[in-house]
């Protein structure tokens, strides 16, 4: 396990690293997840042999620290991740980022373009959501912070099911809540607009039955759309297709 101090209070981002050469692959998880848990089985596959691979947990999640005086905006996450990547010496890396992590990766590419060579987004959030709906980030954002810490945390773990809860319970409560609120709120310009404007190669993996919307505009902007027979967790639901798509996008 590797780590980097990313805040003045000493808070650290940690990651699991698989050694290799060439442009690094940086894997970034979704809300309430952990990169080693979600990407571990695919990152070790022979198709990626020889490449340096970093399975990073963002502040507030998994094996990283959970400071409670951190804002947990998408910009905050991107800046902290940038500090970690600079410490790791990745240079321009290929980012593979799932769901909420995709929004962080887009923000990283906008704010720290020297750190992003290519983007592979995996069913990433591109648009604002309505608080209080669904089961994930939007539902969490329907609470106040006090309500979430006092009762929403336990209600959320019951609601999301055993698989997601297994990593969500490793998250800081404040971190999970604030990240969800800012993810639902989105950015200005929107994450979708940022994605359209980015100049790096961009690939967007999505379940066959859950396209991101605006496919024509995304394609016109140069985003390569790859439908996959899977649910939201593409790397777990269809690891063969996920691996093939990432290899093709980062060759």
What does this structure look like?
The chain has helices at residues 35-43, 74-88, 100-111, 137-140, 145-160, 162-168, 173-185, 191-197, 215-220, 234-237, 239-249; strands spanning 2-5, 12-18, 21-28, 51-57, 93-98, 116-122, 202-207, 223-228. By secondary structure, it is α/β, with parallel strands linked by helices. It has a single domain (2-127, 189-249), classed as Alpha/Beta hydrolase fold, catalytic domain (Rossmann fold), CATH 3.40.50. Residues 23-127 form the AB hydrolase-1 domain. This is Pimeloyl-ACP methyl ester carboxylesterase. InterPro entries: AB_hydrolase_1 (IPR000073), AB_hydrolase_fold (IPR029058), Carboxylesterase_BioH (IPR050228). It comes from Kribbella amoyensis.
Task: Name a few traits of the molecule.
single chain, 251 residues, alpha/beta, Rossmann fold, 8 strands, catalytic activity
What is the CATH fold-level name? Rossmann fold
Total individual domains = 1
Oligomeric category? single chain
The tally of strands reads 8
State the helicity in percent bands.
40-55%
What is the alpha-carbon Rg in Å?
A: 17 Å
CATH superfamily: Alpha/Beta hydrolase fold, catalytic domain
- Termini Cα gap: 26 Å
CATH class: Alpha Beta
Strand percentage lies at 15-25%
Shape: globular
Largest beta-sheet details? 8 strands, mixed
Name the CATH architecture: 3-Layer(aba) Sandwich
- What class, by secondary structure content? alpha/beta
Strand order of the largest sheet: 1-2-4-3-5-6-7-8
| Poorly predicted residue ranges | none
Number of continuous helical runs: 11
Can you write the helix and strand succession as a string? EEEHEHEHEHHHHHEHEHH
InterPro entries: AB_hydrolase_1, AB_hydrolase_fold, Carboxylesterase_BioH
GO molecular function: catalytic activity
Domain AB hydrolase-1: 23-127
Protein name: Pimeloyl-ACP methyl ester carboxylesterase
């Amino acid at each position: 396990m590797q780590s980097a101090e990313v805040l003045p209070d000493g808070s650290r981002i940690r990651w699991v690293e698989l050694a290799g050469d060439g442009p690094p692959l940086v894997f970034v998880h979704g809300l309430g997840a952990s990169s080693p848990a979600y990407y571990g089985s695919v990152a070790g596959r022979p198709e990626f042999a020889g490449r340096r691979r970093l399975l990073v947990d963002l502040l507030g999640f998994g094996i990283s620290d959970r400071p409670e005086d951190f804002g947990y905006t998408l910009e905050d996450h991107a800046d902290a991740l940038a500090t970690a990547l600079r410490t790791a010496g990745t240079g321009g890396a290929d980012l593979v980022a799932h769901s909420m992590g995709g929004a962080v990766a887009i923000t990283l590419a906008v704010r720290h373009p020297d750190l992003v060579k290519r983007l592979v987004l995996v069913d990433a959030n591109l648009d604002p959501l309505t608080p209080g709906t669904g089961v994930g980030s939007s539902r969490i954002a329907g609470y106040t912070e006090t309500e979430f810490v006092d009762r929403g945390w336990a209600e959320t773990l019951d609601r999301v099911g055993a698989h997601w809860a297994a990593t969500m319970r490793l998250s800081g409560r404040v971190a999970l809540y604030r990240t969800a609120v800012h993810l639902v709120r989105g950015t200005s310009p929107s994450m979708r607009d940022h994605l359209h404007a980015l100049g790096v190669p961009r690939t967007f993996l999505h379940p066959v039955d859950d396209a991101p919307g605006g496919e024509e505009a995304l394609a016109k902007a140069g985003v390569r759309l790859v439908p996959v027979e899977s649910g939201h967790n593409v790397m777990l639901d269809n690891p063969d297709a996920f691996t093939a798509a990432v290899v093709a996008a980062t060759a």
